[in-house]
Design goal:
The structure holds two protein chains of two kinds.
Chain A: H1 17-26, E1 31-32, H2 33-43, H3 52-65, E2 68-71, E3 86-89, H4 91-113
Antiparallel strand pairs in A: 1-3, 2-3
Chain B: H1 3-21, H2 28-69, H3 95-112, H4 114-143, E1 154-160, E2 166-167, H5 171-180, E3 184-198, E4 204-211, H6 213-219, E5 225-226, H7 231-235, E6 241-245, H8 246-252, E7 263-266, E8 269-277, E9 290-293, E10 311-316, H9 322-339, H10 341-344, E11 348-353, H11 354-359, H12 363-394, H13 396-404, H14 409-444, H15 460-485, H16 490-495, H17 503-538, E12 549-554, H18 564-579, E13 584-590, E14 600-606, E15 619-628, H19 630-634, E16 638-641, E17 655-659, H20 660-667, E18 676-682, E19 690-700, E20 715-720, H21 726-730, E21 736-741, H22 749-759, E22 765-770, H23 771-778, H24 780-814, H25 816-824, H26 829-858, H27 874-900, H28 904-909
Helix pairs in contact in B: 1-2, 3-14, 4-12, 4-14, 4-15, 5-9, 12-13, 12-15, 12-17, 12-24, 14-15, 17-24, 17-26, 17-27, 18-22, 24-26, 24-27, 26-27
Chain lengths: ~130, ~900
Amino acid sequence: MPRRPNDPVDEFLPLTPAVFDILLTLADGEKHGYAIAREVEARSEGQVRFGPGTLYGTLTRLLGAGLIRESDGPGEEGPTVERRRYYKLTPLGREVAVAEARRLAGLVATARAKSLIKLKGDAQSR
Amino acid sequence: MTPPVTQHRRLISLAARWIGAAYPSRSRLEHEETTVFLRDALEDAWTRRRWLGLAGMLRVTAADLWRCWTGRAALPLSPAFPFVYGTAHSRRTTLMDQLMSDLRYSVRLLTRTPAFTAVAVATLALGIGSATAVYAVTDAVLIRPFPYPDMNRIALLTEVAPNGQGMSVSWPNYQDWVAQNEVFDELGVYRGATVTMTGGDQAERLNGAIVSASVFATMGIPPARGRLFNTVDDSAATARVAIISERLWRSHFAARDSVVGERVMLNSQLFEIVGVMPPAMRFPSRLTDVWLPLGLSVPGFPPRGAHPGLTAVGRIKAGVDLEGARSAMTTIAARLAELYPNSNKGGGIAVNSYYEQVVQNIRPALYMLLATVGLLVLIACTNLASLMLARSDARQRELALRAALGAARVKLLRQLLVESSLLASLGGALGLGLAWIAVRTFVASNPSTVPRIDLVGIDWRVASFALVLSALTVILFAVVPALRASTPNLQDALRDGRGGAGRRSIRMRRVLVATQVAVAVILLVGAGLLAKSLGSLLSIDLGFNPDKVVTMRLTIPDAAYPTPEAWVAFHRSLVERLASIPGVQKAGINSALPLQGGGSESPVMKEGDPPPAPDRPMTMTLYQASGGEYFDAMGIELLKGRLFKQGDTGNAAPVAVVDDTLAQKLFGTVDIVGRRIAFEFDGHDAATFKPRWREVVGVVRHVKHYGLVGEPPYVQIYAPFEQIPLWMEARRPAMAIVVRTAGDPTTIVADLRRTVAAIDPRIPVYSVQAMDTYVGQTTEQPRLSAALVTMFAAVALMLSAVGLYGVLSYLVSLRTREIGVRLALGAKRSQIVRQVIGQGLGIAVAGLVAGVGAALAATQLLKAMLFNVSPTDVSTFATVIGVLAVVAVIASAVPARRASGVDPLSALKAD
């Protein structure tokens, strides 16, 4: 995929939440389209749902940006399984996802410092 | 895998493929992916949450589709930089993209002016809906091919009496036709018959037909099962075989494969079923359920001079046309007249296209309705064109600005056309919905005079008609305004903030409104003429009173009642029992019913007349067998003498009740009680000729028997049923029960049926009818036509009033400043009012003149549908002109008031 070599990762940030969701889904390995949609939906408890048009449209855009690439997939699973396209993160995609996660973690840390939210590890006492 | 699972999988992948096809076209691979995705998603949703899951999934898909079609399929990677990286996937603007963007723009514009959009869509929907509904009926009735191969070669043949009256075919004549035939491939003969089927829970009356083998060959429809009749069935009086309809096979024989060879009880005799006809066989009637062979009836056919209700049907040879067939049959008729002068002299043969026969009554009405809805669509388009013009005037500044900013003219034009097409699509879709409702309502009302009504519906042919019509309306209402609007006068428009309205546009709108008025004149005149014609139809003196009368028919099987005595005894006990049913005021029986035609006819003479001779025309009479209080039940007025009484039995002196037309024609007076007449004759030649005299005991009013209009000049005789008329003895008539009730006549139908069943449960009761409903049916077509045209005319009137109002309001708004100046200079407000109304009337008068001219020509086409009304009826034209003038004044009054209310100060300050 053509990518301008000096694009700093920061140029992608912040990521649109749904796009970050897709990258997160691919973080632990290659997946095909519907698997991505299903995982995003499960993780968000049904709040984020992709239709095929939006999903493939966005995947195409991610391909174009060089954040993901097509992979061969796990190979033939059986005689009736159609050929599906699988996607995985490119190194750049992984970098962008990590950067976005860091950025968000920084924001969350600030929110905790200002007692906006409490997380599990935080002290229970007031 | 178990079958149900396979099935639901198949359904799901089918659904996935359909939804997938709704996505914008992309590469084949992507399309495949989409389909697989959808299939998985559907499968998951179904497995997890069934219908709820599917609903959620479809909601998401709908939103997804919307995103794709609006070009927002790809989410921006980052909210800050919503642009695509790289160039490989950047979108080049294609025509499709441009159209999509035009579409989005149009949607925004139309939603911003909801009132305009609503009016435009409603106007279009009304026009397209009415046109589509009328087309749906026309398509089913006239256009859609009949199931018979080469139907234009099928002809019906009847005989013609020397006086030009049509007659059924005499059996010996038919045999000679077949022997001498050179122009027909097949020539068959048939007669309608009512068949009583017994053996089930109760006796059932079926629509049947007695047919020769050639009838099937003529129609060209092969049997669904079994065989057709053959020449043995045509001649053998013992061939008790029957062919049944697929409908009957399903409803009464459980669609058994073994039906061929089964036996069934028809008219109290056992018949073997030899064949089943497919639904395509709708001859002689679409209701025919059983066909019986001709052979059984042949021995009973009367000699050459009599006409036992047969009609011939033939398939004309290839290379011969209808005229050729006609002249060949005329030759045969002449030959027979020479051979058999007593019976055939002066007679002819009528050969008519079967297709024509089916559609001839309905065709003029349908053509008229098509023309009407065509005019309505024209008015709707004119109105829309007017609206579009006003809108483009108002948008002149915006368009000029866009043009100044470099938008190419073709682009502006394209956008305007996309906008119009969007309106037309919405209007067309809504119109199709309206048409669907209209057609369903129409079919549900079950109009009995519309052939093939069971085929009327909205199918792809009708839908494509609506589509083409919608496209056509775009051309009619949009192209001219669009062309005009896309060439705005830049400087004028930009300088004058209000948006310019050129002289051209004003003139065009005046012409449009005048056109509307003209079309409204045509429709209103048509509606007025039809309504007036209907009025004269409805005021025809029937000769009887149909209110609160119910009638039904019964057929007494000859096999069960072989002697006249048994037949008379049955009816005597029926008449006795009918009178005692609670709720019955008067009850009687008669062998014929008013307005239904049919019955038996004969020459009639009074005592003292010379015996009939071939060269002296005799008065023809309809004769009926009557019993009980038939005249009172039917509300037929007694003018002189008495009605039948209990003593008028077979042993008493023969009597008759006659109608006033007989009295006038034969005696020149109605005072003829005690005089003697005869309509039954013994002996076949002058030597043995002997009339059977009956004494006239009463004179009653003439009853419309053959229909409301076009009655043959036959007089009427009634004989007591216990003195069965001579000709009826051989073939006893099916009697009708006639009952007049105090309340709603249909409530006692069950009691009537029980009464008949109590005497003999084998006798079927059928054709139960409230007499006033039946009378209503005879005027059904004129009523339908008048009602529909009136409705369309009302819409047209409304649309043109709106058009007139719109154009005047617009003119007033343009001239606010001028009016202000004139008021400031001392003009009276009443002058302003007069002037504006004058302007409106000017447009209206131009439309009226053109409309009256066009209507004078158009109503000539209505001539055949008008009864006692001239197509140039002066009072109708005058009324229409008056109505339109009043409407024009009202439509002008509001803008005129507004004009007179202009405040000179603020009008001048507005500059």
